[in-house]
Amino acid sequence: MSKLVTIYGGSGFVGRYIARRMAKEGWRVRVAVRRPNEAMHVKPYGVVGQVEPVLCNIRNDASVAAVMQGADAVVNCVGVLNELGKNTFDAVQAEGAGRIARIAAENGIQTMVHLSAIGADANSDSEYSRSKAEGEAAVLAHCPNAVILRPSVIFGAEDNFFNRFAGMTRFGPILPIAGGDTKFQPVFVDDVAKAAVMGVLGQAAPGAYELGGPEVKTLRALIGEMLGVIHRRRAVVSLPRFAAAILAGVFDIVQFVSFQLISNGILTRDQLRNLQKDNVVSADAKGFAYLGIEPVTTGSVLPDYLWKFRPSGQYDAIKGSARNLKA
Q1: Does the residue 282 lie in any domain?
Q2: 260-309, pLDDT tens digit by residue?
Q3: 308 belongs to a structural domain
Q4: What is the CATH number of the domain that holds 194?
Q5: With the C-alpha atoms ordered 20, 76, 186, 158, is the resulting torsion angle positive or negative?
Q6: Which domain holds residue 90?
Q7: Residue 251, CA atoms < 13 Å, CB-side half-sphere
Q8: Which string of DSSP letters, residue by residue, matches 207-226?
Q9: Most buried residue, 54, 62, 242, 301, by most Cβ within 10 Å?
Q10: What is the model's pTM?
Q11: Burial of 83 (0-12, 13-18, 19+ CB in 10 A)
């Protein structure tokens, strides 16, 4: 019988790519999610019955243990960018990660891959970064041989980075950003999935890996690249820190007074704190080179999914050709 991997958050942005690759490796894949009915898109990743979404709440021991029964390996991809309800940074990224690792150890599961983030720091003033670091520590306390992946900002067809900024260009000639000089090292989602699969297959040594793409660019430069791909001209305005703090505070207040019916998907105060620090691979960190993976550039991927934000969408290139013919 083929081996089984349980992927917590396996229907999410990164998890789905890991699930697809694990299915191609011949493993049975159990995708543990809060809403299995919304995760049916993972089933065609393998043959009938090979990839199955199952109900799981990582805040509950019994729920985590139930979907881990019989597994040979576990992968944790669960994370949040904004706290909503009981899904706080601590509950999900610190306690949830520790719970998965503890139950894996109790079940004798030797292989665990944990998705963290560059910038994870127990002393950070950002709750996101602090909880990520606490999650790493909790995982290693129970699974010292775990593989921990710390990617920079991840891009891909379903990302919440380039898609968000590209969507904002539809609302006017000015595109305001916070932390325009902050440096990032964008990494393609499938490259992260490759690293995770190597961890599951035992092809990556235990330890932490910082994953960044081949290019380091400021946020302003990345926005400029995105604007070139979608063929739009916008005035990119980098907000002063005090102005960005006011806006983030207003957005957070709106979420609070609406009893979270309106989610702050634009900019939170915690995200603003993270934007004060560069998000790049450390000079002494193990990364893609150590794993033998050559990461792809943003320029080779962005046109594949940002075309829908062009003025004429999929017809933009055709209209451009027609204009050249007239000329």
Answers
A1: yes
A2: 999 998 999 999 999 999 999 999 999 999 999 999 999 999 999 999 99
A3: no
A4: 3.40.50.720
A5: positive
A6: 4-157+185-215+278-296
A7: 18
A8: EEEEE--S--EEHHHHHHHH
A9: 301
A10: 0.95
A11: buried
In terms of residues, how long is the chain?
Answer: 327
Structure tokens at 22: 């694990």
Nearest to 291 by CA among 199, 200, 214, 154: 199
At 295, give phi and psi (nearest 5°): -70, 150
Q: Which residues are registered as beta bridge partners of 268?
A: none
Task: With a cut of 80, say whether residue 320 has pLDDT above it.
Answer: no
* Structure tokens that stand for 39 in this block: 């995760």
Note whether 244 and 272 are within 8 A (CB): yes
Taking a C-beta distance cutoff of 8 angstroms, is the pair 176, 251 a contact? no
Structure token pair of residue 52:
């199955």
pLDDT at 323: 67
Closest CA to 13 of 198, 187, 212: 187
- Sign of the Cα pseudo-torsion (18, 24, 29, 32, in order): positive
Does residue 167 fall inside a structural domain? Answer: no
Burial, 240: exposed, middle or buried (Cβ in 10 Å; 0-12, 13-18, 19+)?
exposed
- What's the structural domain count of the chain? 1
Q: Output the pLDDT for position 184.
A: 98
CA distance 275 to 272: 5
